[in-house]
Amino acid sequence: MSTTTESHRHASRPIALIDLAAQQARIRERVDRAIARVLDHGQYIMGPEVADLERRLAAHTGAGHVVSCASGTDALLIAMMSLGLGRGDAVLCPAFTFTATPEAIVLLGATPVFVDVDLDTHNIAPESIAAGLDTARAKGLEPRGIIAVDLFGLAADYTALSHIAASQGLWIIADAAQSFGAARDGRKTGTFGATSFFPAKPLGCYGDGGAIFTDDDALAEVMVSIRSHGKATGGDKYDIARIGVNGRLDTIQAAILIEKLAIFDEEVALRQAVARRYSEELDGVVTVPRIPDGCVSVWAQYTIRVPATKRAPLAAALADEKIPTAIYYPRPLHHQTAYAAFPVAGNGAPNAERLSAEVLSLPMHPYLEPEDQDRIVAAIRRAMGRI
Ligand SMILES: *Cc1c(COP(=O)(O)O)cnc(C)c1O
Description:
Elements: H1 6-10, H2 20-41, H3 48-61, E1 65-69, H4 72-82, E2 89-94, H5 100-107, E3 111-115, H6 129-138, E4 142-149, H7 158-168, E5 171-175, E6 183-184, E7 187-188, E8 193-196, E9 210-214, H8 217-227, H9 251-262, H10 264-282, E10 295-296, E11 302-305, H11 308-320, H12 350-358, E12 359-362, H13 370-386
Parallel strand pairs: 2-3, 2-4, 4-5, 5-8
Antiparallel strand pairs: 1-9, 6-7, 6-10, 8-9, 11-12
The protein binds pyridoxal-5'-phosphate.
C-alpha cells in the first residue's frame, strides 16, 4: 500500500462479487409489473407464467421439453427419480463440485462414485470414467449413469463422455446449474440436464427455482408427474401413479424469470467481455481459465489458480482493497464429512485436491465496470509481485 493516492482512495469503494442490485435496477419496473400480475390473477401454484416460462426456455435452449421445478437440487432429484435410480446403483460424478450433485444420488439410496477432474477445465475427466466404473463394480454396484457438472459455466466434454456412456449403457445428466446458456460444439448444454435459478446463478430468480431439460417425451411426462406428488398426468387425475415430490416452481418466480430471460443473452455477452479482459490482463500473472475450442462459457464464475501458498495472502490483499473473492470449492467432496465413506475412482482425485487448494473466484457479473475491473487487475498484479 505504498502509493495510496487521494484518487486511489476515492476509487476504493467496495466491489460486489456478484452484483444483483445493478441488474435489478435495470428491470425493476418490469419485474414489479410481472409480480403484480400474479397477485392479480392469484394462481400462485402452476399459474400461466410457469408454462409460458417453460415454452420460452425450450425455445432458448432447443430442448424438446422443459420441466420447471423448485430448485436445481430438485431438478437433479426428479431427473434421477424418473430414471428409477435406487439402492445398488452407482452414479459417477466429479469430486470437485457443489454438494447438491452427489446429494441427490444419496437421497435416492444410490452410491456416488467420485471421479477426478481435468485441471484446466475443472470438469469431470473423461479418461477417469473407466476407473470409476471399475470401482463401482468392484463394490458390487451397478453403474447406471454419469452426472457431469458444467463447472463455472463451462460445458463438460459431452462428446467424449457420450462415447463412453453409449458403450457402457449409461445415461448422462448434465448438472447445468451453473451453465444455463452455455454451448459446446454448437449445442446448448443440458439436452438432458438440470439447471438452477438460485439468485446468484447466471439466470437467477428471486428465490429458489430450477428446471430439467429433455428431448425424451416419456421421461418428460414422468417428470411432470413426479414434480407434483406423482399425480397421473393423463386419464384419472386423482390417481397417484407413483411416488413424487412437491417440486413445483412458484408462479411468482416464473414471472420474474420471464423478465430476466429477456435480457439474458445480452448479459452473457457482457460476462464474456468481462472474462476476456480478465484473461488478457492476468495471463502470466496467475493461471487463467482455459476455454476449449468450440465452447461458449457463461462465466458463472471467473476462477483463477495460484500456488496454494499464495492463495490466502492474495485473497487477504484483495480484501484489504475491498475486493471480495470466493473459494469454490475449498474441499473436494470425498474430503467432506458426509461423503468420506463413499468410493473414489481408481487412484484418487489428485486434480480435485489440487484445485481445492489453488482456486480463487474473482468478482464476475455483467455489470462490472471497467474501472472496477482495472482496480481488481492492478490489485492482483501488485499482490502477486509481493507474495
Ligand atoms: C447451485 C448448484 C446446484 C443446486 O442448485 P439449487 O438451485 O441451489 O438447488 C447443483 N449443482 C451445482 C453444481 C450448483 O452450483
